[in-house]
Amino acid sequence: MDLKELYQGFRDPLIMKALTKKININAKQLPHPLKVMEVCGGHTHTIMKYGLMQLLPENIEFIHGPGCPVCIMPKERIDQAIELAMLPDTILVTLGDMIRVPGSKGTLAQCRARGGDIRPIYDPMDTLVIAKENPTKSVIYFAIGFETTTPMTAVLMQVADQQKLSNFYVHCNHVLVPPAINAVMSDGRAKINAFIGPSHVSVITGAKIYQCVADKYNLPVVVAGFEPVDVMQSILMLVDLTIAAAQHDSPPGMSIQYSRAVSMEGNLIAQTKINEVFEIRDVFRWRGLGDIANSALKIRDKYAHFDAEIVFKAHFFTWFSKTKSV
Amino acid sequence: MCLCIPSKICAFHDEEGLVTVDTLGVQRQICTQLISEPLAIGDYLLIHVGFAISKLNHEEAQESLTEYRSMLDNMSAEDAQALFN
A272: which residues sit within 8 A by CB, 6+ positions away? Predict the structure, then answer.
C-alpha cells in the first residue's frame, strides 16, 4: 500500500456515503439522542471541513470539546512568555501555532514586532541549535501541547542535560486530556453522552486513559483517527455501542477505531520519558474552562535548573501577583 | 496542533535515531528516539513536530480498508446505485 492509497482509502466518498446510510439506519434504534463530544480540535476540523454534521440524523449532534492546547492557553501564560521574550539577551522559542494567540498584552507576534526575539520552530530540537549558536543569550523554549507533544520536550531536556547546556530553559505548559474531560463532566450538568477520543494523544498514552471515563460516566468512548472515514466509522461505533448497552443493560464501554496507530498501552518509551522529566502540577488555568486541578505538568526537581518558572521567577510580576496558579 | 503526517522511511543515518522520511515527495530528517520497534526502509511512521511517535500498523490499515470495501460489496444493487446519486 502506498501513501496515496492510505490517504484516499480513508477519504473515499463512496465509503463515506455507505457509512452515512448505515448510521442513519442504525440511529433509529438509539434509546436516546446521542450528544457526542469530540475532545480534540483536529476532529472538529475534520467535522467542519467535510460537513459531517449535515450527514447525520437529527438524533445525533456534536458538542465541540475543549479544542487544542493552543486555544486553551490562558492569557496569563502568554503574558509570561512575553515578559520572558522582552528580557535583555533572551530568545524565546516556540512552536509556530502559538505565535498569534493573544494574552492581555497582545500576541507573541506583536511582541516580536516590538523587538522581542521570538523564533517560531517546527521541531523542538531546533532549540538546541539556537542555544548553541547563541551562547551569550538565554534561550527559552515555551513548551506547549497535550500528551502528543510532551515527550518531545522531555527528549529535548534530556539531551540538553547530557550536553550540559547552560543557556537553555523551558517554560512548561504541557496539559493533560483526562482531567479536562472530567472537568467538563464532573458537575453533572453536561448533556454529553458519548465521546470521540483524540487520535494522537492516544498514540502516546494508549486508549487505556479513557476506560475510567467510560466507566465513571457510563458512556461510550471511541478513539478515532482524523480522516473523515475514521470519524464517520467512529460515530457508527458509538451508535452501536449505545444500542448494545441499552439492549443488554450493560456499560457501553470503550473501543479503538484508529487501530492502525493506537494501542491500549500506547507508546511506552514516550510515557517513560514524560515521567522522568515531568510531574503533575497542582492546578493549571484553561482558557474557557478555568482552573483545573492536576490538569497539567511541571518540571521535576532534577531538571529545575532548566525551569524558566524558577530561574526567571523574579520577572513574572503579572502572573504571581494576580493569580494563585502555580 | 496534534496533527501527524504519515511518512515513509527512505534512508537511515549514522547518527543514532535519525532517519529521512518521504511525505508525498517532500523529504526531511526526523528523530526516531520514541520508537521501540525495529524499523526498515519502506515502513510508515506517524510524524509529529520532527519526531516519529508510532509505526503505522500496515495490517490494521489494510484490514480497515478491506472492511470498508466488503461493506460496499454487501450492499444491495439498489443501495449501491443510490450512492452515486
Answer: none
